[in-house]
């Protein structure tokens, strides 16, 4: 795949990684705190949590999911107790004082607060301070103790896997937002996942679909040693809790920005609404926009013997595919069907019109861009099989072997199941996101250079035997092994040619 598009520079970054490095002084401090303050704090925090639990449990008993019960005196009392207990809990964690800027709007004015950046479970602090509702995974209800506290604030539950229930979630948000302040405000983290706060990733549209005014809220953790960030690759929840409890003080800042009222155009177009609020929040935070979404996370973090080596072109492809709307409907059976049809073309290269027929999509600017990504020779014709491989790769980045199997189905000879060396090189270039792939290392290791073809079973076996297959047997532009040489080329490396 060609690498085009100027956005590639922001796309290469991976905000789902958190690397923690300690200086010697920090290590000593953590050690000293671990044997003194830490156990006391941990004891206090767990006691407060267990103390809060019965209140939350009683208050959530017998409540309906659809009707807001009247605020009786005892419910108000429980609410005040819970707020006090939660504040005490955060105090014991080390959030002694929390700087709050701006003012939270009333529920009758703004039903939805959009919070960013989302980077940790400590983002629950503003939620417990206001006892707002949140949108959360259904599974969080079954976390012991904490799950009861979550249920208390009447969250809107989502199931990530299933389309129909996603729609239900949006319906529920809409219903509550339109209740005119009867229901608690909903705090939504529109990024939908935790990042390392180095930028704002793409927003999901859920909070913006009702088309009602929102209040953006930005969060800051201005600590020197970042023990807060809890993202996909990096220290786990317990390690972060330990490290955070070992900090003398944990500063935090919550800033309520002015209410944002959508224009007529934004009301009709939630994606535009989301994008404008995101820009405004990024400006307030002085952070860059990173055009990645929750679903790109897997592409950035793929692992295994055939993990994606350079994700920039695949991320770009993924963005285009999402814009084409292929994501929602792209199911495994659809892929199988495309494989069959791509195979039937027997390597015949197709033009833009034929691609549009193949995908049953009209010719748009985005489709043209996708087409040109695969138009390596510049003659307007592409090998649709490579498109299907790229689609399968971004669809299930961690199941590279499945994608490889599917690629073999399209490329193998009907008689004997062999795929030619040059075809395999093209397949792996797409899957790994590399260029100028040379397979001679692989073939000479296999059986000598004269048989430049291979079956799926042979390759599968070989990869299982050699977990560092990509590093040891493949050669490509900017291979880690070649890195020192590329650097010495006075900037004449291939990567700068496009
Ligand atoms: C956070 O993400 C950025 C990419 O946006 C990355 O460059 C940086 O190294 C990450 N920070 C940490 C501490 O891992
Ligand atoms: C192509 O898409 C249209 C709507 O966009 C749909 O009605 C039609 O059934 C689709 N055709 C195929 C073969 O999937
Ligand atoms: C990588 O370096 C080796 C020599 O160490 C060279 O033979 C090979 O062609 C290089 N590959 C690429 C793609 O630059």
UniProtKB/TrEMBL annotation:
Q: Mind listing the GO molecular function terms for this protein?
A: O-acyltransferase activity
Its recorded name reads Phospholipid/glycerol acyltransferase domain-containing protein
What range(s) does the Phospholipid/glycerol acyltransferase domain occupy?
Answer: 112-222
Q: Name one GO cellular component term.
A: membrane
Q: CDD domains under this entry?
A: LPLAT_LPCAT1-like
One of this protein's GO BP terms?
phospholipid biosynthetic process
Q: What is its main location?
A: membrane
The keyword Acetylation belongs to this UniProt entry's keyword annotation: no
- Record keywords: Glycosyltransferase included? no
Q: List the Gene3D superfamilies hit by this protein, alphabetically.
A: EF-hand
Q: Taxonomically, which superkingdom? A: Eukaryota
Compartment(s): Membrane
- Write out the transmembrane intervals: 30-59
Specify the pathway.
Lipid metabolism; phospholipid metabolism; Phospholipid metabolism
The family database entries (Pfam families) matched by this protein are listed as:
Acyltransferase (PF01553)
Q: Which family does it belong to?
A: Belongs to the 1-acyl-sn-glycerol-3-phosphate acyltransferase family.
- Keywords assigned by UniProt, alphabetized: Acyltransferase, Lipid biosynthesis, Lipid metabolism, Membrane, Phospholipid biosynthesis, Phospholipid metabolism, Transferase, Transmembrane, Transmembrane helix
């Amino acid at each position: 795949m060609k690498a085009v598009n100027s956005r590639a520079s922001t796309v290469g970054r991976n905000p789902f990684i958190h690397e923690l490095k300690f200086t010697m002084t920090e290590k000593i401090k953590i050690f000293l705190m671990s044997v003194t303050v830490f156990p006391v704090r941990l004891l206090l925090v767990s006691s407060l949590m267990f103390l809060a639990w019965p209140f939350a449990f009683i208050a959530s008993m017998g409540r309906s999911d659809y009707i807001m019960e009247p605020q009786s005196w005892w419910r108000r009392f429980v609410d005040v107790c819970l707020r006090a207990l939660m504040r005490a809990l955060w105090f014991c964690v080390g959030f002694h004082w929390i700087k709050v800027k701006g003012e939270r709007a009333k529920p009758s004015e703004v039903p939805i607060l959009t919070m960013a950046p989302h980077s940790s479970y400590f983002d629950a602090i503003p939620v417990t301070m206001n006892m707002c509702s949140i949108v959360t995974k259904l599974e969080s209800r079954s976390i012991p103790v904490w799950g009861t506290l979550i249920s208390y604030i009447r969250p809107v539950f989502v199931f990530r896997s299933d389309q129909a229930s996603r729609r239900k979630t949006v319906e529920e948000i809409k219903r509550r937002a339109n209740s005119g302040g009867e229901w608690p405000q909903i705090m939504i983290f529109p990024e939908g996942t935790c990042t390392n706060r180095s930028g704002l990733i793409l927003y999901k549209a859920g909070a913006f679909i009702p088309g009602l005014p929102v209040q953006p809220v930005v969060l800051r953790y201005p600590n020197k040693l970042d023990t807060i960030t809890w993202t996909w690759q990096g220290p786990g929840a317990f390690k972060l809790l330990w490290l955070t409890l070992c900090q003398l003080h944990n500063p935090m800042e919550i800033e309520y920005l002015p209410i944002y009222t959508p224009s007529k155009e934004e009301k009709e177009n939630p994606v535009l609404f989301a994008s404008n609020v995101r820009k405004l929040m990024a400006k307030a935070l002085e952070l860059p926009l990173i055009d990645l979404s929750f679903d790109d996370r897997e592409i950035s973090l793929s692992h295994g013997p055939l993990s994606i080596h350079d994700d920039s072109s695949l991320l770009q492809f993924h963005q285009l595919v999402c814009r084409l709307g292929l994501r929602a409907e792209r199911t495994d059976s659809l892929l199988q069907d495309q494989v069959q049809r791509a195979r039937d073309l027997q390597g015949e290269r197709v033009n833009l019109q034929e691609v549009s027929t193949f995908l049953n999509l009209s010719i748009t600017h985005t489709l043209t861009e996708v087409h040109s990504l695969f138009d390596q020779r510049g003659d307007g014709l592409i090998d649709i099989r490579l498109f299907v491989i790229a689609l399968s790769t971004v669809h299930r980045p961690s199941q590279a072997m499945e994608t490889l199997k599917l690629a073999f189905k399209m490329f193998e000879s009907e008689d004997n199941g062999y795929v030619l060396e040059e075809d395999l090189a093209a397949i792996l270039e797409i899957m790994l996101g590399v260029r100028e792939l040379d397979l001679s290392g692989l073939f000479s290791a296999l059986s000598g250079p004269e048989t430049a073809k291979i079956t799926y079973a042979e390759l599968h076996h070989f990869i299982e035997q050699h977990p560092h297959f990509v590093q040891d047997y493949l050669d490509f532009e900017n291979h880690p092994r070649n890195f020192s040489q590329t650097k010495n080329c006075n900037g004449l490396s291939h990567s700068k040619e496009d």
